[in-house]
Request: fold
Amino acid sequence: MKHFIGVLVLSLSLLLIGCSAETGGEKEGVVVATTGQIADAIKEISGDHLKVTALMGPGVDPHLYKATQSDLTKLDKAEVIFYNGLHLEGQMLDIFEQMSKNKAVLAVGEKLDKKDLLASDDEAMLHDPHIWFDIELWKGVVQAIGDKLQEEYPQFKEDFAANEEAYLKKLDELQTYAKARVNEIPEKQRILVTAHDAFNYFGRSQGFEVRGLQGLSTDSEYGVKDVQEMVNFLAANNIKAIFIESSVSDKAMKAVIEGAKEKGHDIVIGGELFSDAMGAEGTKEGTYIGMYQHNIDTIVDAWK
Reply:
């Protein structure tokens, strides 16, 4: 009953917002993105032409995120809405469907070629949504964003195209930097253990074996058996460092450390990685490039 009432309230909110939205007139350049990664790409392409807002800030888990009334207002006022898709924002799909009836809404991850996506271990029909950890895939997302922005704001088309080209070059430089740093680690030691399976695209693109205690979504549960299997894996591979994530509780990884200690295998936390969210706005880690560099440096330095 409570779930029904919640859905009813949300539906009424969407209806009221939809009725109050302004139609017609010149666009004011108001764009909303769900994640910081997407918002950062929009800002790089749009320069000073658009007003860009991200709904999810530092430390926010998009798998569990539920839209607030404030979010609904922002989405209503937006002229274009960008979200990751691939079920990352699983609690908001109905909202995006409703909004798409009256304005431009783009799921950037679903513009990528499905053959380039990793499958979800839980459901074969779904795909791993953590696409920003493959720089080449993310370049495809940037291009999809650029195409949509040029379509919606043709008056800025030339500026958007130039900014997009410049940003893609920066992403190529990031890939070169990442490869050089990863090469500092012997291939046999390239094993990354984190709280949940957010880094499979990273592992594929940078040559790491990746293990996560939880599944692709932080909504999945872990148990004593999962912890024990992880402890056995760490001991068998002589892994001394595991990593926590900025948007996921460290409780699970502390359980792994305690379990390993009981077996006489000492493990340390190698550092904190940004997984589903970036750092604070205004910091280096608050940008996609800064976030990725932080993760690369943290992982490589922990192994050295």
User: Anything to note?
Assistant: The longest strand covers residues 191-196. Strands lie at 30-33, 51-54, 80-83, 104-107, 191-196, 209-214, 241-245, 268-273. Confidence is low (pLDDT under 50) at residues 1-9, 11-24. The longest helix spans residues 157-182.
